[in-house]
Amino acid sequence: MIRRFLCLAVPALAVAGCDALGGGEEPVAEASATPSPTASASASGTPAPDAPTGGAREITEETDTFLFEYAYPQEAGEEPGLAAWLDERMDRQRATLEREANEGRDEARDNGFPFNKYSSSTVWEVVAQLPGWLSLSAALDTYYGGAHPNYGFDSIVWDRENRRALEPLALFTSAEALDSAMGDRLCEALNAERAERRGDAVEPQPDDPYQNCVALEDTNVLLGSSNRRNFNRIGVQIAPYVAGPYAEGAYEFTFPVDEAVLAAVKPQYRSAFAVAE
Fold first, then answer.
1. What is the C-alpha separation between 126 and 111, in angstroms, rounded?
2. Rounded to whole angstroms, how far apart are CA atoms 203 and 212?
3. Of the candidates 189, 238, 232, which has an alpha carbon nearest to the alpha carbon of residue 215?
4. Closest by alpha carbon to 129, among 86, 84, 74?
5. pLDDT of the residue at 277
6. What is the model's pTM?
7. What residue ranges do the domains of the chain occupy?
């Protein structure tokens, strides 16, 4: 399943590039869109069909009710199947935005209050490009009429041989196994950054998620590389409202792959990873 991580300020997505991970997926399904056969096949591990390849794509559409932006890099556009996969997601996101914006406009009109134009922006970039893999991250920004915009993260790993999109965590035996392999590294890094931003030490509280550690399954995981041969970096992005309030911002960390992390990789994917030197 493809997952998306975004902050939610009302009921109703920082780009990590190659340098961010020392080199140079899947998201929460859209709430109301029905996946196309292409998307369903990719998410389930069935190879995606070939599609005409091109280069980078950048779409901007503005109407009276919404602003829609979507972009991906040349490396993605030239991958057989990946461009079609990204285009299908683009179409679903646009359709969802248009529907929600129209509903918001009508509600505002019916209740006699101003309508603020909705917006959605998704910008994909390359995290790492290996012989058999393309790791991508996305910066996601939305506005659905609340007090402020929302933002968060997305990521996938494109399996070039099998032409399918995978959630980065799907390359590990489980999210819990990777959590265990990383030990206290994420928690220690997060609490140190929290303390710096808050000006006070973090004291764990049983019922306060803003004081406690964050599980990897509640974050956006990126696979990076410093050697362009293997994945040897693990990136972790934490959206607002997960580890702290919106005003505190997002948290982003990078950790080297070590023997413990390597042991948590599924056997069929282990050759794609290496311990960081």
1. 44
2. 8
3. 238
4. 74
5. 87
6. 0.80
7. 5-272
pLDDT (tens digit per residue) in 181-211: 999 999 999 999 999 999 999 998 888 999 9
Structure tokens at 51: 């599609």
Tokens 């091109």 — which residue?
54
Taking CA atoms, 73 is separated from 70, 226, 254, 271, in Å, by: 11, 20, 23, 26
Hey, which residues does 256 pair with through a beta bridge? 233
Residue with the two structure tokens 């196994």: 177
Terminal-to-terminal C-alpha distance of the chain:
32
**Cβ atoms 88, 51 nearer than 8 A:** no
Sequence-separated (6 or more) residues with CB below 8 Å from residue 232: 22, 23, 224, 225, 226, 256, 257, 273, 274, 275, 276, 277
- Was domain 5-272 assigned CATH 3.30.565.40? yes
Which positions ≥6 away from 57 have C-beta within 8 Å?
Answer: 70, 71, 72, 77, 83, 86, 87
Q: Report strand pairing: 164-166 vs 220-224.
A: unpaired
